[in-house]
Amino acid sequence: MSNPASSTQEKRFNGVGVSPGIARGTVFVYRPDDDAAPSRSIEESEIPTEIARFEGALLATRAQILEMQQRIAESTGAKDASIFDAHLLVVEDRTLIDEVLRRLGADRMNVEHVFQTVAGRYAKTLSEIDDPYLRERALDIHDVTRRVIHNLMGTQARDLAGVTTPHILIAHNLAPSDTAQLNRALVLGFGTDAGSRTSHTAIMARSLNIPAIVGLHEASSQLVTGDHVLLDGYNGLLVVNPSDQTLWEYGELEIKKTVVEEKLSQLRETASTTRDGHHVILSANIELPDDMELVQQSGAEGVGLYRTEFFYLNKAELPTEEEQFAAYRQVAEAAAPHSVIIRTLDLGGDKFMSALHIPEELNPFLGWRAIRFCLERVDIFKTQLRAILRASAAGNVKIMYPMISGVEELRRANVLLEECRAELRAEGLAFNEEMEVGAMIEIPSAAISADILAKEVDFFSIGTNDLIQYSIAVDRLNEHIAHLYEPTHPAIIRLIRMTVEAAHANNLWVGVCGEMAGDILLTPLLLGLGIDELSAGAGSVPRVKRAVQSLDNAACRQLVEEIQHLDTAAAILAKCDAVARAHYPELL
Ligand code: PEP
Ligand code: MG
C-alpha cells in the first residue's frame, strides 16, 4: 500500500472512537521501538566523512539532552532533571566513542550501523551484570543510542517530551510511561493502532477532553510525521488529506456539536439530580494535580479517583513523603469543599517505574500489582499513606486501596494505615482522624465477598475496567478480543448488584470509578442498580450530568427489573439504549 503522505488523495482509516470531538492538524508519529539503523558498507575514503557525521550527531544529542534537562528542571524540578546527567555521560564516554572509531576502520560499515552495534553490545554487557546501578546505565545507553541514530539519520527524535508544536499524536500504542512525558496542552488528538476503550490512552483522552481513536490497526506504519489529518473521535474515523467536501461536512457537524457543548457548559453549577429528585454524586477521575483545572471547569463534585501512580512514572527516584504531601494537598485544596478520593499506588499491570526494577512477568495484570506490591514494599506504601493522611488535614480527603482480592489484604493495609496514624500522632503532625477508607471492587472475588469486606471499610468504589477484564477473562488492552469486553454482560450486572446490596446492607455508600461511569448509555443502568456516586473523566462529566438530570430514578429502577431476565449483553445494552434515547437523544 502506498504511503498516504506521498499523495494528496484523501485516505480513511477506521478505528473505535473512544473520546468524542473532532481534531484537525499535523500528525506526529511516535515510534519508540523503530530504531533499527540502516547498514551499508563504505569505502575507506568515506571514513573521515562518517567520523565527522558521528561527531556532529554526538554534539547535537548533547545539546538536545541539555535542553530537555533544562525544560524538565523548570517544570518539575532539578531532581527529576538529574536523570539526564547519566545520559550526558553516555555521549561523553571515551571507551564507547573510541571503539566506534576503531570499528569504523575495521568493519568499513556506515557509522549508524557501527554505533548501534557497539552501543548495543556495551549495554547488553552492563545489563547482564547483577548490579542495579549498571542495569540502569544500560537503559541510559539504549535511550541515548536511539537519539544519536536519529540525529545521524536526520530523522526526528521519537521523544514525546521533545515535541513542541500542536499535533495529532499517532502511535502503535502509548504506554502510561510514554504519555507521562507529554506536554498535554499540545496534543489535539490521539490515534493508536492498538488499544481499547479502557486502555490508558482512551481514559486519559476522555479526561482531557481530547478526541481519540484506538484500534486503527496499521495507521501508525502508514502515516508520517507532518501528514495533515482530520480525526473524528465520534465515529472513530481518521481522514488523511481530507478533501474540501470532507472538510465542509465536518464543518457542519462541528457547528451542531458546538451548540450541544455550549448547552452542556451551562450545567457547571447545577446538581446531578434526577427529575424525581434523586441525587447521585458526580465526581471526576484525575491522574495529575494539573488535571484539577479541567475538573473545576467540568462542574464535577470533587475527585472520585486520583490515580497516584502517575506521580511515580518516569522519575529517577521514588517521590518523597513531602513531595507527595504537597501534591495531594494541592488537589485537596483545589477540590474543596468537595472530597478527593486518593487511590494508593497501582503500579504493575501496564504501569511501571524503572527505578523499582519490577521483574518482567508473564501475566502482569494478574501479577505483582497494586496492593500486592504495596503490602510487600511497606517502605514505599507507608510513605504514601503518611502523605495522604497529612493531606487529609488540608481538605476532604478519602483513601482507597486498589486490587483488593480478599479481606486479609484489606486488614493488613488497614494495620499499616493505623501504624502511620500512630507515628503522625507521636510526631505531632496533623491529619483527619475520621478520614474515610474504601476498597476498590475490581476483582470478582471482592465483589462476591463484598459483604465480608464491607465490615472493614467506609465505602466501596467499583473499578469496572478491571472487574470486566477479570470476570470475562478478556485483556482490557487487547483490541483483538475487544468484542468480548462487554460491560452489560449479565455476570457484570450481577457482580455490581451484589456489591451494592452488600454495601447498603452495611450502611456504606458505593461508587463506580471505571469507564462505565462515563458512558451515558449506561447511566440509567447504574442509577437503577443503586449506585451512589459516579466518577468519570472530566471531559465526560457534563454529558453524564445532563443524562442524570434527564432521567427519572423510578424509570431506572424499572429498567433494572426488566433486564433481570435477559440473557445477553446485547439485549441488555439495547434496553439501556432505548431508555437513554427516550430521555436525552440530543447527547447520543
Ligand atoms: C478500574 O479498574 O476500573 C479502575 C478505575 O482502575 P484503573 O483503570 O486505573 O485500573
Ligand atoms: Mg483498576
Structural features, described:
The structure is a single chain. By secondary structure, the protein is an alpha/beta fold. The chain has three domains: 11-32 and 159-242, Glucose Oxidase, domain 1 (3-Layer(bba) Sandwich), CATH 3.50.30.10; 44-153, Enzyme I, Chain A, domain 2; 275-587, Alpha-Beta Barrel (TIM Barrel), CATH 3.20.20.60. The chain has helices spanning 47-76, 78-81, 83-91, 94-107, 111-128, 132-153, 176-179, 200-208, 219-222, 244-265, 292-298, 321-335, 370-376, 378-391, 407-427, 444-448, 450-453, 464-472, 490-505, 523-528, 541-550, 553-563, 569-583, and strands at residues 11-14, 16-19, 22-30, 167-171, 187-192, 212-214, 228-232, 237-240, 281-286, 303-307, 339-343, 396-401, 437-441, 459-462, 509-512, 533-537. The strands form two sheets. Strands 1-8-7-3-4-5-6-2 form an eight-stranded mixed β-sheet. Helix 7 (176-179) links the parallel strand 4 and strand 5. The structure holds phosphoenolpyruvate and magnesium ion.
Q: Main β-sheet: number of strands, strand sense, barrel status?
A: 8 strands, mixed
Oligomer: single chain
Bound small-molecule species: phosphoenolpyruvate, magnesium ion
CATH superfamily membership of the largest domain: Phosphoenolpyruvate-binding domains
Shape: globular
The value of Rg in angstroms is: 26 Å
Q: Distance between the terminal alpha carbons, to the nearest Å?
A: 36 Å
Q: Work out the helix count.
A: 23
Number of domains: 3
Please tally the β strands and state the result. 16
Q: Tell me the helix content.
A: 40-55%
Nearest-integer average pLDDT? 90
Q: What's the CATH first level of the largest domain?
A: Alpha Beta
CATH architecture of the largest domain: Alpha-Beta Barrel
Structural class: alpha/beta
Major sheet strand order? 1-8-7-3-4-5-6-2
